[in-house]
Amino acid sequence: MTTLQRYQMFIDGKWVDAADGRTFTSMNPTTGDDWSEIPEATAADVNRAVEAAHRAFTQGEWATALPTARGKYLRRLADLLAQKSEELGRTETIDTGKMLKETRWQAKYIAEFFHFYAGAADKVMGNTLPIDKPDMLAMTLREPLGVVAAVVPWNSQLFLVAVKIGPALAAGNTVVLKASEHASAPMLEFAKLMEEAGFPPGVFNVVTGHGDPCGRVLTSHPLVQRISFTGGPESARHIIRNSAENFAQVSLELGGKSPFLVFDDADLESAVNGSISGIFGATGQSCVAGSRLYLQEKVADQFLDTMVSRARQIRIGDPLLEETQMGPLATHGQLARIEKEVAFAQEQGGKLLTGGQRPPAQNRGLFYEPTIIECRSQQDRIVDTEMFGPVLSVLRFKDEEEVLRLANDTKHGLAAGVFTRNGARALRVTKQLRAGIVWVNTYRVVSPIAEFGGFKESGYGRESGFQAIYDYTRPKTVWINTSDQPLANPFVMR
């Protein structure tokens, strides 16, 4: 019998079990076996975490810390992340099935996000207003909001925690993070680094559990001032309804069905590599996955021949091994959903070019082959259904006008990719694509400097970039009377 690794929640600077002692297990998707035991937070646990965060915000060391001091905390955290990326990445790989080469890189790279926000902490400024009253000075101050509820999914956790808590803490807020019930361990390991960095108790807290009561109590709590959520649309609707209880500000980073446009003048080798990265990188379990491939007719056959050949050569297996290129899916539910949708796509007339099954050589774990389906039309269900797996739908187009119509014909609007050597076309298409992120002749590139977020049902609000720090503040307008004269008629507004 395998001994489970036991974790505790991090609340008010202490490691604690759930109030009633309840736990749940987390599965290693590579083997299909449970590997860790996680606390199932009660409502009382969530209340304790939020109250600790509120207390840290209103009194004590963090409440009085100057922006420069907050930046120093974030720098210490960034240095620790860079040092311990291997261990942190390994935990995420075991818990989610993501490739170690990616989780290790991601854990190390998010140090740059915290360095960025460490440097931004003392550069958040208000304004002096050119007011139309000669005896008045008017200015704005930027102040932190208070307690931030951060809710992250199981995929790309380290990146998502960086883009949420980096600007939140730099601005002076405190955070309660709800980890995904499917993969809580990486966030609890991250909390150990927060503790080691010396953040005062209550500044950062991690609660673990399912949507009810953990997520519900957190996002509806009267002391929560902002909710930053990444996940699916149904959970987002619950979040919005919960926020009606506390009138918290809400930002949503939701799913996508990102179009990948390849014109006939594109560098095809580069475009194939970009498409492989976009749909088979991270086993397609990415909100920005380039899962809708649009090929201009002249190059479609050549592109697909190369893409299919490359897809069949992808090495599937243990994500901890360097030679592996694609690991398992994260959950049983995700695997079952993908199998159902791929089968239905074929029933609708879609042509299966490769994949469409579990790898015969993998008799354990949640593995699924890289899959490419050429669809009959834009109306096929799979074309605008987020799969969150290694499944690519393909359509052909005649010209620029047609592909823009097809690419924008979606309820999603997170990301898009454009491959063309024509610079004028690239600019035209980029401006007309209704997506929050457009990559031209590249894909899946991120930076702490660049904003991240979507349109339509892909959410609203932006993460990363300097603007994000302002989203975790509120403006305060200050009026100062500079006149020596007594106030005039008190019954007349000036």
Helical amount: 25-40%
Strand content: 15-25%
The CATH homologous superfamily of the largest domain is called: Aldehyde Dehydrogenase, Chain A, domain 1
User: Can you tell me the CATH topology of the largest domain?
Assistant: Aldehyde Dehydrogenase, Chain A, domain 1
Can you summarize the main beta sheet?
7 strands, mixed
CATH class of the largest domain: Alpha Beta
Instruction: Work out the number of β strands.
Output: 21
* Number of structural domains: 2
Secondary structure tally, helices:
15
Q: Could you tell me the mean pLDDT? A: 96
Please tell me what the overall shape is: globular
Describe this entry's structure for a reader.
With 494 residues, the protein is an alpha/beta fold. It has 2 domains: 5-254 and 454-477, Aldehyde Dehydrogenase, Chain A, domain 1, CATH 3.40.605; 259-440, Aldehyde Dehydrogenase, Chain A, domain 2. It has helices at 43-58, 61-64, 67-83, 85-96, 100-120, 157-170, 185-197, 211-219, 233-243, 268-280, 297-312, 332-347, 400-408, 423-432, 467-471; strands spanning 5-6, 9-11, 14-16, 23-28, 33-39, 128-129, 136-144, 147-151, 174-179, 204-208, 224-230, 249-253, 259-262, 292-296, 351-354, 371-374, 391-397, 415-419, 437-440, 459-460, 473-481. A 7-stranded mixed beta sheet has the order 15-16-17-14-13-18-19, sandwiched between helices. A 6-stranded mixed beta sheet has the order 10-9-8-11-12-20, sandwiched between helices. Strands 1-5-4 form a 3-stranded mixed beta sheet, with helices on one face. The longest helix is centred in the first third of the chain and has 21 residues, at 100-120. The chain is globular and about 80 Å long. The mean pLDDT is 96.
